[in-house]
Amino acid sequence: MNPLILAFIYLAAAPIVGGLIVGLDRKISARMQRRVGPPILQPFYDVLKLFEKEKVVVSRTQNFYVLTYLVFMMFTGALFFSGGDILLVVFALTLSHVFLALAAYSANSPYSYVGAERELIQLMAAEPMIIITAVGMFVVSKLVLPNGSFFVSDLATLSVPVIYYLPAMFLGFVYILTIKLRKSPFDISTSHHAHQELVKGVTTEFSGSTLGRIEIAHWYEVVLMLGFTYLFFGFDPVLGLVAVAFVYLLEVFVDNNFSRVKWPLALQTSWLLAAVLGVLNLAALYFVAGGGV
Amino acid sequence: MEVMSFLPQVEVVSFLLLFPFLAAAALLLLRTDLVRNIFIVASAILIAAASIFLLASGYGSGVVYYVAGAEPTTQMMFYAELLIALGIIYLGLRYKKMPVVALAAVQTLMAIYLEANFAHGLSAENNLFTDQLSIIMALIIGVIGSLICVYAIGYMRDFHHHNKDVKDHRNIFFFVMFLFLSAMFGLVFSNNLLWLYFFWEITTVCSFVLIGYTRTHEAVNNAFLALAMNLLGGIAFMGAILYLASSGGGIIELDRLLASGKAVALLPAVLISFAGLTKAAQMPFSSWLVGAMVAPTPVSALLHSSTMVKAGVYVIIRLAPLLAGSLSGYMISLVGAFTFLLASGIAISQSNAKKVLAYSTIANLGLVVACAGVGTYEAVWAAILLVIFHAISKSLMFLCVGTVEHRISSRDIEDMGGLILRMPKLTVMMLIGMSGMFLAPFGMLISKWATLRAFIDASPLLSPLLIGIIAYGGAVTVFFWTKWMGRLIEVTHLRKSIEDKISLPEWSALYILAALTVLVCLLFPVVSSTLVEPFIEANYVLPLLDGQVNILGQSNLTIMLLMLVLIMLMPFSMLYYGRERKHISAYMCGRPTTADMKFSGSLGITRELSLRNYYMQNYFGEARLLRAGTILSVGVMALMIWGVSFGVILI
């Protein structure tokens, strides 16, 4: 399909899908806690309500950074789903999160300031594993494509089962997925749960439509990260969708069963796992592929 | 390979070699401010224009050799070296720096031994040459170096205004700055290794003088530290020449060295690369460049962006074809990679802006070295891109920090809170410079991306490790730059502009460099296809299957262009947000808070809010990581020596 059309489908559908996933997430979480839980459409009601709130700011420029965060999150996802270069997707994702951190910094408030630092720590914790995963997929693609490919359009349709070659990397990726989805125990910069923190970390100083934009960006990111997860199973679309659903349920389960950890633990464990599961898997892959790489 | 003497290039090359030197000599005599300033600006414009002219006339003609200079020139260089060595030994004795005296003595003895035994056999057919790489380097030296000299006019006036206890030796200062440029041009145009060595030593001495400019205790110590480490590199360089003279069949030209194959050339190539590692401040030699920040900021800018350290990586890039596929090459690559990772980590723990810049330079040079050590055509392509982008962004950053330091009397990042309101124009330039260092779609990110792609094809043994290192190092880089950016863009209550006292020379250098940072991102495909790729094609046999050097792909370049446009458009959204927003103060747990963020604490005491970045000393402390770096790099170098002494060539 035409990449531009795919990009537009993502831009239009991702917030709906992402919002629904988050709604389901809240429902399932509630059931795990023996509550009835909100309706599945609750996230949409929440965000729509945010857009009707009075427009107040701590500093005028914060909205500019938040808007840029959203725009680049959309850009990143559109690049991914239109089949673009996966490394460029990773870099654009980083760019987008940098803008969220900058937004929080610009408010010059103690809570959002600490939140910004923590957002950056999360970024720093997750990035090595993501880059190693992208490279791992490229090396796998070399088994079937003469020069290999970094393009998502190729990686998503690889005939070889990526997961067989990157089992350890997959585990490491699921681990940092917890960070990317802002799930406990790694929701250290801001949390969706009231019991985790009294003040909302990186989003403390944002309200109304600005906060709504951050939530929409989160929906876009959820869909993007699940798309990333799908790439491990691209050889079998049905298995892929089942695996993605399973991974997300696992994240919800983890979310509800662990309380937030301190940032050093999040950073240390993600880096350790990226080295052990990521780099070693990559080394093994080079070994298996031998002269072909 | 043919000599094309009808081109005016030879005149330009001689001009670039000699003119900065003559200008330097004149500056030594000029003591009136106004005359000197006009002279500096005029010379800088001429040098920059000449290097651009060299690009215009020479980019299409490939490698051109020049006979240039008869035998007496090399002879004179030898005597000049002896004089310099005597000077160093004298200063070393005077300041009781015995290691320096010993190193200088060893080096001089080696030079005398060479002169006495082999001088007759060692004459080069072509002493000078230009090719695309030397044109790129000449542009970096000629344009960025000259801009820094212009900037220094305003900066040094302020510097002596702020530091009354430092004696005003501005004539010597500018003499050495221009001499430095001259030596750098010599270095990148030399084909004769003896000439290359001579210019190499001149850059060492120039940086020694500039680092020690203020003559404070610290400055003198750091100047000698830099001297000692670079003399050690000089000894290795001399060793390479001696080896070539005695058992290398009298090869004394760079082109013949490159053509002679690994069996003959690997040992001298590794020795010269070792010299490159010292000059490029790779671990365990990184401390001299960090110490060099005691010098006035234009010196740091010059050392970090367009001269000195770039000379170090330049020779390694030149020798990359010889290093490729050898154990020693891989070990050099690992030294660079470890340096990249650990220096990036150390940058997290530093709040001194110049120190952050210094460690970031060391880290990026590490990446260049890592690429050059791998030595594949993709890796060398990435290395050259790194050199170009780094030179521009880093000089901009240093000059910005220098100006900020004079205005706020601090170089601490924690004192730069809310700078966007106090120095809006300068802060925007700093943000551009920082984006240029780590963010997509700007320069250094492009080159880091190229580096990652090159590492993937490096070697099955080394690739996973190198990929891991760049993945971690890149993540760390994002952290320390963004927290600095965050500090700058805080919206605080300090709103009085302090930007008005910045001099015209400073502004003009800053504006041009900021424009260049963005422009080079836009022009990067052109730079790559007209200069870097022809160089690669001339020096490497490209595989037939995918014979394209630019591995990033056309579609990605288009997308990055789109991102760049998007980033430039986004600030316009502020026009919209300027209206109809109600201002409230930040959340302070409900404490009564004033507009300037003073809140009432317990017992009715009014306290001021102060925010600090994370520095994570326990994890990224300087001492801790430097120790790790020293152990790793010394270990790797030991392996390298073992590799070269047994002639281990892996492929």
Reconstruct the topology from this structure.
The complex is a heterodimer of chains A (293) and B (651).
Chain A (H helix, E strand, L loop, with lengths): L2 H30 L9 H9 L5 E2 L3 H21 L4 H21 L3 H32 L10 H4 L6 H4 L1 H14 L27 H23 L6 H21 L5 H27 L4
Helix pairs in contact in A: 1-3, 1-9, 1-10, 2-9, 3-4, 3-9, 4-5, 5-8, 5-11, 8-9, 8-11, 9-10
Chain B lengths: L8 H21 L3 H26 L5 E3 L4 H24 L3 H21 L9 E3 L1 H31 L7 H20 L3 H19 L5 H31 L6 H6 L2 H18 L7 H5 L5 H10 L2 H15 L3 H22 L4 H22 L2 H32 L10 H4 L1 H15 L4 H14 L6 H27 L14 H36 L14 H16 L3 H5 L4 E2 L14 E3 L5 E3 L8 H4 L1 H24 L6
Antiparallel strand pairs in B: 1-2, 4-5
Structure description:
The complex is a heterodimer of chains A (293) and B (651). Chain A contains eleven helices and one strand, in the order H-H-E-H-H-H-H-H-H-H-H-H. Chain A has helices at 3-32, 42-50, 61-81, 86-106, 110-141, 152-155, 162-165, 167-180, 208-230, 237-257, 263-289, and one strand spanning 56-57. The mean pLDDT of chain A is 91. Chain B is mainly α and 651 residues long. Mean pLDDT of chain B is 87; it is low at 1-6. The longest helix of chain B has 36 residues, at 504-539. At the A-B interface, strand 1, helix 3, helix 4, helix 5 and helix 11 of A face helix 19, helix 20, helix 22, helix 23 and strand 3 of B. Strand 1 (56-57) of chain A pairs parallel with strand 3 (582-583) of chain B.
